[in-house]
Amino acid sequence: MEEKLEERLQQIKKLLHAQQLKLTPQREATLRVLLENQEDHLSAEEIFMLVKQKAPEIGLATVYRTLELLVDLRVIEKLNFGDGVARYEFRSRDHPHHHHHLICLSCGVVLEIEDLLGDLEKKVEDKHNFQIVDHRVSFLGYCSGCRDRAKI
Asked: Considering Cα of 140, then 143, then 146, then 152, what sign does the dihedral take?
């Protein structure tokens, strides 16, 4: 795991250098937190609290700027699950499109599912002569645990 983390960090460092940007200690600390928590959909504040453990001198504004830079570079995605909180996750290197999410309206759990719209996307492009570069889908409902508890 540590080896993959370091490999991904080096790839991002090369991307930054290609844009004449540096991997500052603050950016590295933020990236490490994101890499170590890839399974989670962390908010900027949650990321900040974790980064602060690694780099106590870092400020919230620095974390926000780093996150926005990484979004601009298409390293991470900024997500909104309808709760008014922006959350962040890494973009997949293996797939051109984002995966989809199942969001429980009761407990707030977010589950990831694979991209389901490849064929539909091609049809839309062909029919409307429109080049699609990405799409996002979130399904809202109730997870099995909440359904069992509420007998939904």
From this structure: positive
Tell which CATH classification among 3.40.50.2300, 3.30.1490.190, 3.40.30.120, 3.50.50.60 matches the domain 97-152: 3.30.1490.190
> How much is the pTM?
0.68
Minimal CA–CA distance to 30: which of 55, 5, 10, 7?
55
Average pLDDT over residues 91-103: 66
Give the number of residues written for the chain: 152
Whole-angstrom CA distances from 33 to 4, 46, 51 are: 14, 10, 6
Closest CA to 44 of 71, 73, 11, 20: 71
pLDDT at 4 over 60: yes
pLDDT of residue 152: 60
